[in-house]
Queue: 3 jobs
Job 1
Amino acid sequence: MKSKLFFPLLLCLAILPLCSSSSGNTGAELTHLKSWQWELAKKKAGEQNRIIFVKGYADYCLPCKFMDENVFSDPEVINFFNANFVNMLVDVKTEEGKWFIEKYQLDLLPAMYFFSSDGKLLSAKNGSLDKTSLMKWAQMITTKN
């Protein structure tokens, strides 16, 4: 009986590291303005010669959580976004979020937008993206601008 349990237990222990959700995260995280601070984002972007990245989200949004856990937690994404963008979050349930929804016709979460430092919309995508798609889009934006 003990030998019948030993192999499955050994197999589970061998597979456990592969099932870990860490995906190589080094503890770094995407830095972003903690609340809607549009004028500050434009000022910082201008001073640092960067593009503004805005992510619209809601706490009930499962695709938003998926991207946070699997895309925005990836060290390559973190490093690229922190180096190239002034990152800002907008909670669509707040007054600022409602204004943002109306102004930019947000219809699906997560919603991601790139703006120039003077506030001009450069590009937008609504809906979940995988790491490869997000990085390709972000790199294209930095190359064009």
Job 2
Amino acid sequence: MLESTVERLRAEVRTANSMADNIRCKPGALEAGRRALEEHFKRTGERAHVAVDWRTHAYWVRRDLEVVQKISIITTKRDSTLSQKTSYPNFELVIVDLASQPNLSAAYNVAVKQTNSPWILFLDRAVEPIESEWLTLISRARADFSLGN
């Protein structure tokens, strides 16, 4: 008896126009949620923008950076085109010379001592940014992570 009631309730919830089955049936619901988040940020004075990711049906919150912290990017890549592929306004590129140090850790330690940035990013030589805002996105994520601290 209980199983048939549960199954009947599930069938009633999952109709052709039900968000429980497919959120795409009511795209207005996601837009209403986006607007509610935007209004929340406006009320609380947070500078943020909300977008809907239609592939995952999730909200993407992009907070404006209050302070553009200097970021030191430490890498071993000599032929780096990071400067041309980075739109973040406050960064420096520190190239590690592996020939002058016995191991990578020691070389990185020397490079860190050469910077005065509050944020340091160790970037593997195999990593290539695919969009110019890559460092801005990382700094926003780091700023969001700091919100609760």
Job 3
Amino acid sequence: MATTTAVAPLRNLRAYLEESLPRIANAGLAAHVTPERQVRVALTMATRQPKLADCTPESFLMALIEAGQLGLEPGGVLGQAYLVPYGKTVQFIPGYRGLVDLCLRAGDVASVDARAVYDGDTFDYAFGLTEKLEHVPCGESAPEKLTHVYVIFRLKDGGHKFDVMTRGEVEAIRKRSQAKNSGPWVTDYTAMSLKSVVKRGVKLLRMSPELGAAVAKDDSVDIGAPIQLSNLDPTYGEPEEPEPKDPGATSKGIEAQLEGAEGTNGTQAEQNPPDPGKAVEQAPAAPEEHPAPDPPLSDAEQQEAQAPEQGEAEQSSQYVSPGQVSYLKRVAVQFGVKWENVMLQVNMTYGVERVEELTIEQQVKMLAWVKAQVPAKEEGAGDE
């Protein structure tokens, strides 16, 4: 009886995924990904990890599609991505090798070399004008003996960039993760440590939209606000999503941010209708279709968000929309980053005065920059 009970969810999942093959094929997968192989590899994972089959089939399908859209294969010998159960929901998490693959696909990087340093190794590094990185392994490889991880990006123009993380920095990231005591942090600690330094290191590079989306997805899982990157054919509908702690942190809003889906902005406007009386008081000339972000910002920030330049509606779709600007402001407020600091970073990095002048790719990088400020804030507050 116990065996029959355990097999039933897997059988149901297999039937659901095979029935959903047309849906997967129409979900905008990367060119080298086939729906049949994604399903076959995912079912192998579910066989080895029965808790995956106990999750809702729809969440399993969505996680599988997200991996396919980024061109990553979950599980298997490649180790590009993981499917991890959180209660009854499956979450897609990019793996270390997946981030490396996305770096190489971005075009500027010739090679990526990420390594772990263990107790007993000869290891020395320095940043600045006389940077250096020297590592002589002693042969140790036990995860509990790991002391540092580092990554070297060799660029096609002959240059290079590198970053180093201590075990303490890695542990700080693990402790913030929803999967800190389960999944790959338990089974593949060294690989997850390498992924942590690669993920931080790619922020030194010019990220492709796919790489930026993978980093944002991984950040969202770490902080406990999972997002979906899928762009399913609307004829199939959209899955239900749990009520988020922050009304602005919905998967639809973040899909609009990462994919530039203008239709989603309309959905956000319906979910957060503006207060007509409040809008007139704060910015009389502001168009009603651009509601103030929630949580509320200062008067100057609200006026800036509600008063786009004339002709902005005619901008190319590669530039951010007013709704996406409001989303970036909500993220900044959510993570306690002052808006003036965001604008200073925008000006210093891209030489523009307004967020509306950023491209979608640059906006994704700014999202990653805002979220990168979280560790410093939490370390200042002390351990939980």
